Amino acid sequence: MVKIVDNEIDIAEALEQVVTPETGGMNIFVGTTRNHSGGRKVIGLEYEAYEPMATAMMQELEDLARSRWRLHGVSIIHRVGSVEVGEASVVIAVSAAHRKEAFEACRFLIDELKKTVPIWKREFFADGTVEWSGTSQTFSATTSSGRIG
Amino acid sequence: MRIKLKLFSIARDLAGFGEEVVELPPNSTADAVMNILAERNAEFRKWKTSLRFAVNYEYVSHSHQLRDGDEVAVIPPVSGG
């Protein structure tokens, strides 16, 4: 099960979705929003997704994980819109008969999601600046020219 | 031919728009879209290698040949999670 939501992620639901009578272990990763980035204080965050593509890619990742490990269930939920500091922005839950598969698949899913799924984080800093995460180096010349931010 | 161009994150900020129908010569590649964007804001040319393209929800190379009716998205470095 994959989905993109625009309000608080229901972590209990993510687990309920994956548990089966055959399940021997569930692994859950909860990504939460930090109050700091690059040594600066973050006071708010926003996530944007290219939703149809992001959902399709999350489903591809679920399918790929199921083909590599013997899994009972997979939940991948990402939040978009405003997210308060300390709230969950992404939840991945995986169940299997044994913990090894669950741990490995969960790690694989979060690592791949972060590399490929078209979702972007925008950080609002205490000093008043706003930045799309991960673009400060690549786009530094742009930022310093005053065209954005 | 016509494509639907979609921009996200910093690419949308640089271009000043998020979605537009764009007229292109037949057999244009994704790189032709980059040229259109560079006309709007020359910064795009500098950051070309950091931007990926997706056509109809799948990543493609810059040399990918576009077809009439394609939905073409400019994908800056992703930062979900």
Structural class of chain A: alpha+beta
- Helix content estimate of chain B: 25-40%
Strand order of the largest sheet of chain B: 2-1-5-3-4
The tally of beta strands of chain A, per DSSP, is: 9
- What would the average pLDDT of chain A be, to the nearest integer? 92
Please give the alpha-carbon distance between the first and last residues of chain B. 37 Å
The greatest interface here is: A-B, 35 and 23 residues
Order of helices and strands of chain A: EHEEEHEEEHEEH
Describe this structure as you would to a colleague.
The complex is a heterodimer of chains A (149) and B (81). Chain A is an alpha+beta fold and 149 residues long. Chain A has 4 helices and 9 strands; from the N terminus they run E-H-E-E-E-H-E-E-E-H-E-E-H. In chain A, the strands form 2 sheets. In chain A, strands 3, 4, 6, 8 and 9 form a 5-stranded antiparallel β-sheet that branches. A 4-stranded mixed β-sheet of chain A has the order 1-5-7-2, sandwiched between helices. In chain A, a hairpin with a 4-residue loop joins strand 8 (119-125) and strand 9 (130-132). Residues 140-149 of chain A have low confidence and may be disordered. Chain B is built from 3 helices and 5 strands. Chain B has 81 residues and is of the alpha+beta class. Helix content of chain B is 27%, strand content 28%. Chain B has helices spanning 9-15, 30-40, 43-46; strands spanning 2-7, 19-23, 52-55, 58-60, 71-75. The chains are: A alpha+beta (149), B alpha+beta (81).
